[in-house]
Each structure stands twice: as structure tokens, then as C-alpha cells.
User: Fold PadR family transcriptional regulator from Rhizocola hellebori.
Amino acid sequence: MLDLAILGLLHESPMHGYELRKQLNTKLGAIRAAISYGVLYPTLRRLQTRGWITEAGETPAGDEAVPPLTSRRGRVVYKITAEGKERFQDLLAKVGPETYEDAAFGVHFAFFSRTSVDVRLRILEGRRRKIEERRESFRDVLARAAERLDAYTLELQKHGLEAADREVRWLEELIANERKNSQSPPADNPWRP
Assistant:
């Protein structure tokens, strides 16, 4: 999922590592733990090796090299390549059980504006099923073992159930809006997903 997140952010604009980490933590912070430099820079090197990103200002191999662009502090600025844009689109279109999990769903959701309606709907519906299963698990625990749970564990289970209920309602609203918007005539705004 980190590949998707980095490619998505670099698709929006070139960034140096510090800014990229800051944007990752801002955009995905509520979903994922903070991204460390020890994870970020090896991932950037791997994406560079695969040809999905490059240092801004570099020319293709064989051409006269141009020094990479740097920020005021001398940091290398990364940008997405044409191959990286293709990879980003491939990752966005990927739908399966892993995309319904908390972290993966959050990363996909962060880039929904660049995702097709049918893929958004499949991810939202899969996520709803996943959260409905989670909600049923909380209900089962509360129904079967509530009297054996201490007060704090019981409250934690109730909190989990309430959070799952809220998320299912939110997902149902999103799904309804996606379906409504996909059946509407095209809007005057060409940027509308």
C-alpha cells in the first residue's frame, strides 16, 4: 500500500522525501502509523529501481546527465514517471479482500478521485461486508460473554460495536451517492469523478 500512496502523492506533484513523509502522515495518518524514514527511503529506492519514479531533473540513461533538482536544503526531489503513472493506475484498479482491510482501504479511499466508479463501488461494498462481519463479531461477544467481561473490556466491545455501526452507515451513504452519481447525466463540471 505504501507504493500506491507514494505514487499517488507524486502523481499530484514532485516532492522531496521530507515533504513526501509529511504528506503521507497527513493524508494517511488517521489510518496508518507514522511512516518512518527507515521505511520511506528504501521504498523510494525500490520504486526508482523499477523505473516508477525518478529524481526530478534527471534525463533518461544515455542522454547528458542534468543534476537533480533539490530543495533549498539540498534534498532530492522525486517525481513519478510514465511507467509509475501506469503502475499507479494498476494499483488503483486492484480490488480484492486485501483492499477492504483498514490500512489498504484508507489508502485506496485517499485516491478515490482518481479511481473509476465501478472500482470505487466494489471497494466500498467489500469494505461494508468486512465491517458488517466485524460488527457481528462484536455483537456475538456481547451476547455470549458480556456477563464474564470486566467493565472495561465490556466498554471496549461496546465502543467497537458503535464504531462498526457508524462505519456501516457511512459506507451505505457513500455507496448510495456513488450509485446515484453514476446514473446521473454528465455534469457541467468535467473534473467531477
In short: Confidence is low (pLDDT under 50) at residues 58-73, 189-193. Residues 2-102 form a domain with the Arc Repressor Mutant, subunit A fold (CATH 1.10.10.10). The radius of gyration is 21 Å.
